[in-house]
Design a protein that fits this description.
Length: 201
């Protein structure tokens, strides 16, 4: 089924399967595709984000389960805290799934990382649809689920053109300047491979 995603500025994308079938203004797309399902979102629709610290966030950090919050807190564990926890493969796989979900909640559709060495992490991430992009060496900046807080230039996924992969995000801000100021925590929706994989409201 064709789905039209539109933002508060009236900009819209029509998605069919894993691809963008059409782009334009909401009125134009609903006229051209009268039987499409329409999702209207607050804020702005943009290409999804590429998090430069995929290795650090997925393979070098443990994302606690909410049920572990009393014992481990809610923030990712790294360094000595991670070494003390010494997660087994089951915990690593679950952590990676939670880490990806937290990335998706920040509009991330791809993560730059070294080849993942931990099989449990690799298998868990491959099932999520998150795109893994190669990188050369460790990036500068501070690993963060919010690429705007990493201290390096923010990278967006390729433009959203007709026929391209349907990977994009919607942020509840007025424009790109406010997005840069407030960060990716303003994400209300993330689409990967044509699927709505995160919905904040």
């Amino acid at each position: 089924m064709l789905t039209i995603h539109a933002d508060s500025r009236g900009r819209a994308l029509a998605v069919s399967g894993e691809r963008i079938a059409d782009t334009g203004l909401l009125d134009e797309l609903t006229a051209a595709h009268p039987h499409a399902r329409v999702r209207e979102w607050p804020g702005i629709l943009t290409s999804g984000l590429v998090n430069p610290h995929g290795t650090e966030l997925l393979e070098e950090a443990y994302h606690p389960d909410p049920r572990e919050a009393d014992e481990l807190g809610t923030e990712p564990l790294t360094g000595d805290a991670l070494a003390a926890l010494a997660p087994d493969d089951v915990r690593w796989g679950a952590s990676a799934r939670r880490g990806v979900q937290r990335m998706l909640a920040h509009g991330t559709v791809a993560a730059a990382c070294d080849p993942l060495r931990n099989r449990a992490v690799r298998d868990a991430v491959q099932r999520t649809g998150l795109v893994l992009a190669g990188r050369h060496g460790r990036p500068a900046g501070v690993p963060s689920l919010d690429p705007f807080a990493a201290g390096v230039p923010v990278v967006f996924a390729p433009p959203r053109d007709r026929g391209s992969a349907a990977r994009f995000a919607v942020f509840d801000v007025r424009d790109e300047a406010e997005l840069a100021e407030r960060g990716a925590g303003t994400c209300v929706a993330t689409v990967v491979a044509g699927r709505l994989v995160y919905r904040g409201r």
